[in-house]
Amino acid sequence: MRPDSQRIQEIVDTARSLYERGYSFGTAGNISIRTGDRVYITPTNSSFASLSVETMSQLDLNGKLLAGNKPSKETHFHLSAYRARPEACAVVHLHSTYATAIACLRDIDMKDALPIFTPYFAMRIPSLPVVPYYPPGDLMLAQEVERCAAISPAMLLRNHGPITMGKTLLEAAALAEELEEQSRLYFLLYGRGQQLTTTQVEELRRPFR
Ligand SMILES: [Zn+2]
In sequence order, what DSSP letters do the residues of 69-85 get, joined into one string? Predict the structure, then answer.
């Protein structure tokens, strides 16, 4: 049995659950957890439906592979996200349809991409910054993720997809689901929604300051 195998099993279970409920498809997305000076991340070209504890990539905090299969091509931005948020122990990155659609909109507020219609989403994040477009694996992408992760535990990669972080994997995954559903709501309401006012949102987000 691998050390930390119970924690790695959490990635396997969470990934499968996200896949089965349509938040992930094909080989899209990646999940990591940090425990001490180790990071476990889903391997490159792996499906959320069929991960295993044995093949999960184990890295040090500099990205050096210690065990398991070759890690995701998007490992760089997981590591930079952890650097920006020392309290975070999990990162979830999806290509989920609606959040990705928000990231592809022509007109988008790069500082806070999603209008707020309901209180809980506003309460969970201080803002939804957008990372400018860079090709997958580009080191500039990691650098910009680090900048945005310092601002918020949720962000969008322009023309790519969402990233969420949490103290636990459960928290990061729940935030990813919440972001996807809020994005869906945005398109359902498109042009007809009554947003919460700036004052109402500021009041909800006050605990973050
Ligand atoms: Zn991606």
Answer: SPBPTTHHHHHHHHHH-
Ligand 1 center–CA 192 separation, angstroms: 31
Looking at residue 3, what is its pLDDT?
Answer: 73
Q: Is 43 helix (H, G, I), strand (E, B) or coil?
A: strand
Catalytic residues: 74, 120
> What spacing in Å lies between the alpha carbon of 116 and ligand 1's midpoint?
25
CA of 45 to the centre of ligand 1 (A): 11
pTM above 0.90, yes or no: yes
Q: What is the CATH number of the domain that holds 143?
A: 3.40.225.10
| Whole-number pLDDT of residue 206 | 86
Beta carbons of 163 and 100 less than 8 angstroms apart:
no
Q: How far is the CA of 18 from the centre of ligand 1 (A)?
A: 15
* Host domain of residue 88: 5-208
Q: Quick one: pLDDT at residue 114?
A: 95
